[in-house]
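name: query_chain
kind: protein
chains: 1
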Amino acid sequence: MSDQLTRITGTQLSDLAPHLYVHHEARAVGHLFSVVCGLDSMLVGETQILGQVRSALRAAQAEASVGAALEGLFQTALRVGKRAHSETAIGTAGASIVSVGVRMAADGWEPVPSSAPDPSPGNVPADGALAGRRVLLVGAGVVGALAAAVVRRAGAADLVVANRTAARARRIADTYGAKVIPLAQLADELDRADLVISSTGASGLILTRQLVADSLARRGSRPLVLLDLALPRDVDVAVRDLPGATLIDLDTLRTALDGQQAVGDVESVRTLVASEVSAYLDRRRAHRVAPTVVALRAQAAAVVREELARLQTRLPNLDSRDWAVVEGAVRRVADKLLHAPTVRVQQLAASPGGDSYAEALRELFDLPREAPAVVSAPDLPEAP
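structure:
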């Protein structure tokens, strides 16, 4: 996979390595389920991730590039994602985080009085809480759009959007009446902003300590509040030490949200993911023992056919009715003898180390070890 990434991107592996991670077995399944549920998103509970994973699976199916095991895993992940969004309010957790961040920023200023009553106490900033303030949005993704809606509702006087892709920034600007600037003008706009909300997908810092320090020196006594909603962070944590700057980041927000509904929903989804991962792995372990069970029953069916053929030569005068009784009795005996061990081995296979029970069956009955695909299905029916 690393070789393919370097070939496709033309980037050296040494440059890619710091940004790559690999999960195996349970951790890989847990990571996929967490991503689909929105737990691993910049905006917690983001529903777009679910659609993106579904689209990726459909594309892989159309290209016949996904095997049965991977397809089953992703189908399960999509089901888990649907459960998370239907059984909890995880989809609103991200909005709560943005609203709390903006409210915390607004609390640092005296709000301009508004004639309208505040209809939304709690996490949502009051109408007029940002009245007269200039807000700079860095990043025009889902989080940036949500932040634009929140600050406009809070009465921000001016809204500026800085983004690498001008088209995405213009979508926010057209919706919320904002000005668009290129990232190259970030330093100039920083001098004029009262509140900066950064939510890019960049791998490095966008607002360094030096950049903010230079801006503060030019601002005089005007304070600057920076709300960092990016993961990984956009704003250098060292900004906290600069006089006149207030940094609110995701760690700050987690503390502020502790005990609130948004955190409860996140924890509920984490519990759901853990349960679904365990159930999926149990099914996978049980599935791995299936070829051994098929081989055992196929071997028993072959023995039954052989013994019935031998018995038929010894009892040539037995009429068809009596022969059917004898044949049925022999098959039932074999089936009953196999029922308990085959059912039990499938139950035990779901437990940790369950593969050892299948291995024991293969050793005890001297079962063939060829690929399961070449093991013929037995003609012994499953016992009820």
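note: The CA atoms of residues 37 and 83 lie 9 Å apart.
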